[in-house]
Amino acid sequence: MTTIDQPLSGGGGLAGILDRDHTIAKAGFNRWLVPPAALCIHLCIGMAYGFSVFWLPLSRAIGMTAAKACPDMTLMQELFTTTCDWRIASMGWMFTLFFVLLGVSAAIWGGWLERVGPRKAGFVSALCWSGGLMIGALGVYVHQLWLMWLGAGVIGGIGLGLGYISPVSTLIKWFPDHRGMATGFAIGGFGGGAMIGAPLANILVNTFKTPTSVGVWETFVAMGAIYFVFMMIGAFAYRVSPAGWQLDGWKAPAKANAMISQHHVHLKDAHKTPQFWLIWWVLCLNVSAGIGVIGMASPMLQEIFAGTLIGKPELSFTQLAADQRVLIAGIAAGFAGLLSLFNIGGRVFWASLSDFIGRKNTYYTFFLLGIALYALGPWAAGIHSKALFVAAFCVILSMYGGGFATVPAYLADMFGTQFVGAIHGRLLTAWSTAGIIGPVVVNYIREFQLAAGVPRDQLYNTTMYILAGMLVIGLICNHLIKPVNPKWYMDPAEVARLQAAHAKSDAAIVHGSFGIGKGGFDTKAALFWAVVGIPLAWGVWKTLESAIKIL
User: Fold this and answer.
1) Is the per-residue pLDDT at 439 higher than 60?
2) Domain boundaries, the chain
3) pLDDT for 92-115, tens place per residue?
4) How many other CB atoms are found less than 10 A from the CB of residue 11?
5) b or e along 192-221 (b: 16 or more beta carbons within 10 Å of the residue's beta carbon)?
6) CATH architecture for the domain at 35-247+257-550
7) I need a surface site. Which of 128, 311, 391, 422 has the fewest CB within 10 A?
8) What global pTM score does this model have?
């Protein structure tokens, strides 16, 4: 009979190492090693948020000093041209590819992830994300937009989805006492990826730039290699808890919480419940409002405050000289960076808070406070209070990030932990939908207002009220969420069979701690946290360096 601290049998070679059986934790394992493993992956794929740093240099990849534009070129022609520079708007479709493919791939392969475990999913994610960047580099080198879309956008987008959901189920099972905090740390990394990646990309582009190259394809190759190493470290550091493992010394609250189920709902049944679709809309509406702001943060601050940003409040945006517009663009970039910082901080803060006040109350806070802050936005702009405006949107973006980090724990509370990773994967189609709704609402209303002759400092007033209205609908959906009907609960015997199928020994299905998960930050855990913490601290420093220009 195999004991818990003996090697588990499995296939040989790389395929065997990737098997879920080889990731089951053994005696002495510290559960605090799992969050930094997740961060290794999330901090890499989170660069998807920072991809706009490449658009400006790529928009003059042919002309070098200035864009070689072809105004009459259609998008289809642009996909294959080798003689004209790409338009920034066309490259912006990468964001749509990223987040649509993220949601779709997470939904399609979420069930597969639950079967094979997080290591294999993280391994495939690294191949797709880093490999996609390499193919994207080839697309830039031969100047084929379709190839960059296929590589970084489609293949990379699949890597995003698999990497994003890879640690969710594992972390929730390792931290039954702090579900929100655990997922907050990991998913917080996705929000912070751009804080490291964007300044790193700028440094690399300027390093590789030559008279005949803008330095982007070389940067794609370098970042692809760096990300591959870090993501592999994360994938191979993943460990899953043995079936039946219990945290030593921790007991579920004596007073049962009706909103935290002690049962499990099967993946094939979760989407049949009203709870799944109500949470789907809760996430979709919260994200739609926030993602629209992220996409327009820089122009919004510039157009609303214009000359106020450089001490000349009498100047509107259209009255600014070219050199003044350059100055305020730099200040607005600091605003975008500050929003990114609150995005990641909110993921950890709000998800951790949800462990104490509950997921439903946390979302109540998001919607009620969000409605008030969106409504406050036009007033703050009207009285030219830059500080109040910036503060309001920083809090809004913290709740945008907090919504992502809290939702896996919300799902675990509703549907149990057995299939939470796969259920979360399906729910992320709400993100894909929001990635279309949010930018469309903000961009098209802005264009409509501009065509109607609305002054630039008032272009976003109607948008903010509409976003507040979306949050009202989200508030109603959250209110309607009740415990799942017991008819959807899995039979305990079925749960036991599924857990036993993952175990290679009888010892692994006997309830207990097995000496696993004990302790806090030992030396090994502290060093692993430093591996991800030092780059993250550097990213925070670079963000604050840029954000200070707002003051």
Assistant:
1) yes
2) 35-247+257-550
3) 788 888 988 999 999 999 999 988
4) 12
5) bbbbbbbbbbbebbeebbeeebbbbbbbbb
6) Up-down Bundle (1.20)
7) 311
8) 0.85
